[in-house]
# Entry
Amino acid sequence: MALLEIAGVSKRFGATTAVDDVTLRLERGAFFGLLGPSGCGKTTLLRMIAGFESPDSGRIVIDGVDAAGLPPYARPVNMMFQSYALFPHMDVAGNIAFGLRQERMDRRRIAARVAEMLALVQMPGYARRRPHELSGGQRQRVALARALAKMPKLLLLDEPLAALDRKLRAETRLELVGIQERVGITFLVVTHDQEEALSMASCIAVMDRGRLVQTGPPAEIYERPASRFVANFVGEVNLFEGELTAGFNCLALAVTGFPEPIPLPSGTQLPKGGAAALVVRPEKLVLSHAPPAGFAIAATVSSVGYLGGGSIVHLATEQQKALKAYLPGTAAGAFGRGTRVWVAWPAEDGVILMQ
Amino acid sequence: MTGLGRLGRLVLIGVPFFWLALFFLLPLLIVGKVSLAESTIGIPPYTPLIAHDGRGLKLLATAANFALIASDDLYLRAYLGSLGNAALATALCLIIGYPVAYAIARCQTGRRQLLLFLVMLPFWTSFLIRVYAWIAILEPNGLVNQALTSLGLIAAPLPLLNNQFSVELGLVYSYLPFMILPLYGSLSNLDRSLIEAAADLGARPLRVFLGVTLPLTLPGIAAGSLLVLIPAIGEFVIPDLLGGPDTLMIGKVLWDEFFNNRDWPVAAAVAVVLVAALAVPLLAAQRFLERGHAR
Amino acid sequence: MIPPRAAGWFGLGALILGFGFLYAPIVLLVLYSFNASRLVTVWAGFSTRWYGALLHDEAFGAAALTSLEVAAMAATVSLVLGSCAGFSMARFARFPGRLVFGFALLAPLVVPEVILGLSLLLLFVACESWFGGPSRGMLTITVAHATFGACFVSVLVRAQLTGFDRALEEAALDLGARPWTVLMRITLPGIRPALVSGWLLAFTLSLDDLVIASFVTGPSATTLPMAVFSSVRLGVSPEVNALATLFLCVVFLPVAFAGWLMARAERRRQLTQQVRGE
# Structure
């Protein structure tokens, strides 16, 4: 039985539909990511799971129990808030122990659990500190410890890394995954940062304007996006719009202005004549000075941005279409501004999207 | 607040509501009722509204008190005098308070808190005693006259007490903090970059003040003015201690009607007219404060 | 923009004149409380005889005691009523009678005291004639003070609740606390500054009130302002100077101390922030 089942849940605020008929399953022990831009409804969905909002329609079932009508304090779910929401008038130990005191746990067990949690987030010895004496990263750990203290069946994390600086974010990402594996609790992380979702989650659901648009493991979301939105939102993308037509020995995409149709992955079974889009990730593009064998597009380098581990090369085709290529290392050194190049990619690396 | 329960809500709203209904709204209604009664000897010294006169219940309401107020120009002069004094005091508080609030708003944060604290501090000491202090300063043998005489600037003591001047001084002195605080609130929320933008676009300091600062601090000016004007109209202590025989303020008139003339119905009628006159600025004040909360 | 230096002088001048105006009479009162002579005009040397006279004055002593008792009781009742009212206005967006309630909470703050006093007296007199009601005295003064005190407290509580981080309450609910527990353990401690300053404000206002107390009191109860007023109507009274100074000390010192504590806490907070490099 799945730990969390969301069936046909919708929520409206006045005239706006924040969550539109969302259906989702969370397996036990998963590190699940809910990804989407701001305003897509992911936070509303999270709050409905936690019990702060109630759905207008649909069901939320937590570990086999229908959560309808259950107030937040009666659910086996705990939340780590984006602003951390640490109680300012209690010290760190008091914060972590708060949930345990509500369970009427005896004092010795509480003290032991608090110590255990502090060790888990690597902050032993901070028990007597007050929230205002802690740095942002430390507060985040205490918030996590507090939410884990009750060993809930499901832990909700609302943009857990948003307030941290970049370096800290990368480190904390790994830590979170490590902690989740150690305690074995199911995590549901809500984030707008696709890098975060891709690197932490074992399964991702992408939301757009209240609807769930794709669910799957990170690699599938990235390599096989199901829609233009997902392709655009997750990672950089080159998008070609055109019409399906016959190619050399396969299906191809005829794009206005381009001399030849672009070959599609072999085995693509779609009717000719329909409108479609081809998505190619920047790292799949291969640049060369001389025209390669097979299909290629002529373009000029408009700018090169060095990122440290590689470069993003911006290109403009003769048809004024902008393309992005990612070259690792210092390979982009060979292609300065204004260079005329040929752009190609293995046909199998393209992803075809219907309307 | 998720589920404090119907009972919880009822108690939280109901208890203070009931108290205020009983000890604020009901008394005002009673004032209205007494204003329609006649003065009699006895306890209470006014006639009841509904009486049994052998054949049934009769309504004993009379508008005589209001007629008295309307006919005797003492009352009219008192109302107008109060309004005039209060309005003048409000204007003076504004003129004095604005630069002080401005100066405080331009200080660094730490000093600002200290200065605001110092503005409020006199408020924490006895109002009565602070007003009384001015007697010692303004009386013919008081400090000011003493100083001026010893400096040879005047030959005879100046009449600084028991007149319009001392009343205005007392009003401004007492209500100044109530003007400074809202003004400071508005000024401190002023976005400095707006002033800089105006200056950058070529406006001279006076133009910047009139065109940017003043309009944007209008809410503070309005709040401070209401906080001074409305209570000042009905002020009693200041005209009684610092005023003279020709100081006619409605608060004092009400007190005299009540305690000296023992004419409760007329006092009540004076109060009713005063509340009616204040109703408009009162409702404006409430709407203003509600809007501030509905942000 | 006013040239910075000119603005500086103007600002400084405004501050000096403004604060000088506010504090001059107070300073003078203190000075003259130590004047051996009764007259303001003559400085007859340093003396504490007026303090002695004051402390032996039984009337003032009894009045002071009455005022303190009334103020303490009224402030406490104000706190309870005002907190409930402020909470209701801040958290319950709609309920029947909210408009009237809001008006009843704000009007006493601005309505002239003579009207508040008169209306309450008429109420108590009516009660006496209907129920043989409570005789006027300390009880009626306390009730009157509690009424307008509650309005002041409600403003403070409402303001602080409006700025309160609701996420703290949600976190507490999420961790298993029931709404009542959240109120007691999270919300009320969170608005403690408003509660403390509310009590202090109601206390001060009660201690300071002359007009309303004069209206609603009975033959047995005289408050300190009433005693001072009758003494002062006859002119300058040196005992009152001494009283004023004592008053100032009693009020000024704890308030100044509290302010110093808060400033120190603020400086410490800023230092910790600097140390953390924020």
Remarks:
- The CA atoms of residues 4 and 83 of chain B lie 47 Å apart.
- The longest strand of chain B covers residues 50-52.
- DSSP finds 13 helices and two strands in chain B.
- Chain B has a mean pLDDT of 83.
